[in-house]
Amino acid sequence: MTSATHSTLFPQVPDSADAVLDGLDPEQREVATALQGPVCVLAGAGTGKTRAITHRIAYGVRAGIVQPTSVLAVTFTNRAAGEMRGRLRQLGAGGVQARTFHSAALRQLQYFWPKAVGGDLPRLLERKVQLVAEAAARCNIRLDRNELRDVTSEIEWAKVTQTVPADYPAVVAKSQRDAPRDPAEISQVYAMYEQLKRDRTVIDFEDVLLLTVGILQDRHDIADHVRRQYQHFVVDEYQDVSPLQQRLLDLWLGDRDNLCVVGDASQTIYSFTGATPDHLLNFRTRHPGATVVKLVRDYRSTPQVVHLANGLLGQARGRAAEHRLELVSQRERGPEPAYTEYADEPAEAEGTARRIRDLIAAGVPAGEIAVLYRVNSQSEVYEQALADAGVPYQLRGAERFFERAEVREAGVALRGAARAGGNDSLLDDARGLPAEVRAVLSTKGWRSEPPAGSGAVRDRWESLAALVRLAEDFERARPGATLSDLVAELDERAVAQHAPTVQGVTLASLHSAKGLEWDAVFLVGLTEGMMPITYAKTDEQIEEERRLLYVGVTRARFHLSLSWSLARSPGGRSGRRPSRFLNGLRPGSAALGSRSAAGGGGGIERPVAARRKRRGPALCRVCGRTLTDAGEMKLMRCDDCPSDMDEALYERLRDWRAIRAQEISQPAYCVFTDKTLMAIAEAVPASEGELAGIPGVGARKLGRFGGAVLDICAGGDGVEQPAEGDEEV
Q1: SS3 for 197?
Q2: What single string gives the DSSP state of each residue in 364-394?
Q3: How far, in Å, CA of 574 to CA of 576, rounded?
Q4: Which of 70, 192, 375, 522 has the greatest count of CB atoms below 10 A from its CB?
Q5: Closest CA to 266 of 277, 254, 252
Q6: Rounded to two decimals, what is the model's pTM?
Q7: What spatial distance separates the first Cα and last Cα of the chain, rounded to whole Å?
Q8: What is the pLDDT of residues 556-602, one digit of tens each?
């Protein structure tokens, strides 16, 4: 059976409707041919659900049963929607609308607003945090940065669950939701936030759904218009639908039942956003005649990885667990999952970087390796460890591939060369499409060998190298293809956001890794208090944390490593315990309830301290107390010890960081965290050596930002002359 995840990058378009079905397994084929009435696909991780539903749409279109413009396929991320559009195009089913819920609703809102309301649609508020902060201030409620973020998320939850400000306290009490502040205060801030939006004629992303629902409910003529346009609906990741999204879907459908939903209750990990698996679990109750198909053949992961994933869910409880799918691996055997216990977090990061370097040396591409953690604040120590090990990496959530400056420049150069054809002297000695692309991109910084180290120059090279690999794959799939053909392919991919793979180790949170997969996955920081997270109190919250770990495990195709550390910092108290979710799975542990172990062979590795550079305990430079908190260790003093920070320098560094973060389209903490800036403002380094000695300033960040920081510390403005090949400075 052809793997659902390792198909050819540029497959030939099927020459008939029946050819669309070639290569599908019996269950996938059943999905693809069930074109009428309600259909519910229960699809486990790695079972080819996207393959099944895209072939279903393509088969209906190619067979003439479904008009492409009558199909609306919705999912939850732009990346997933882009992938779906790309696959449909490769199957000869262009013209199908594949969008996120918000994108589809915004398109309809923009089209119908003049008719339904009149005038122009209000401006869309890109970030609501600042307006929430102003609302809190007007209510005389002080929120620190973390509280502001939490209250903003709480307002988003209230809106997608269709809870108005006045009802918020009662709804929180009834649902036993753990609110980040007094519910009465949040209700006040929520009401003021809505008032400020009205005063300034702006709407937020949740309003896009609410207003679309309102128009479709109130204007039957507009609802009929939408229903005439769209006759068939497909919803991916249906376990993540919120009550508001379900209401919108019901209005799109009307009294029809041509609906296909796909989901897995065991991958419900976004309840904090209002997502609930109830709509998936209740689908057969709402649609008694529905066709139900289960996909359990796992084409992604080895039997060893699947065995661990099944064992993890085997200990789950609750309604979602009652509907879990037992996966069956379709791959050859692979290595056992590795369990490693480290003395402290720096040792865990160094050990992980060392193993990654060994995997790359053994032939595993860096782009096929991921380090996954529970919260984003865990990334910094791994960034530094990978940079110190000379391993390229990319943070999940950076700017989209086709929006990178070097990719846009490369596109312009390739388009110019394609127009010039044989008249471009640059292509005189190039034979074949890949050679032509290499010749053109050599003027933009590409070389056959990557630059040493990491940083902006390496990032630029990785982007250009991804385009070179894409050209090589394209030429193999389309012998005789021209540069113009490749430019057209790149244009279509840019529209679909179907990016090629960039060769760098991925650092990502478990939540942002959903829907992705790699040959090798490192699950790090698996300790009690982090997995499950400390604020998960109720049984359902604990079970969602278990499902989150399950999602992490099932991202791995072949190599899987699970690790934890006994202390936060070198010399700290070794009081941590491995995650309870590993009980009965990791060697030598017993499951709760005396369950037999499901982890298979292997053992727990405990690296000897002598294998890494020994570290002494971190001591406060003011009082001499041993430091264990990561933030205190960066400052090299206790939080409550007096600071000698240069406040003016700190503010200049913050201003510079904000500008720099905007330039590279990344969050500010990806440049330097607040604690690191405070440490710099206290130390006022005068040389690269002094700056490098500050925790949080690794070799990568020293090379990328060190010159500007030292200039600011010396009284300058941090504006450097652009380094050759660095488009970001």
Answers
A1: helix
A2: --GGGEEEEESSGGGHHHHHHHHHHTT--EE
A3: 6
A4: 522
A5: 277
A6: 0.70
A7: 49
A8: 999 999 999 998 878 777 888 999 999 988 887 766 543 434 444 55
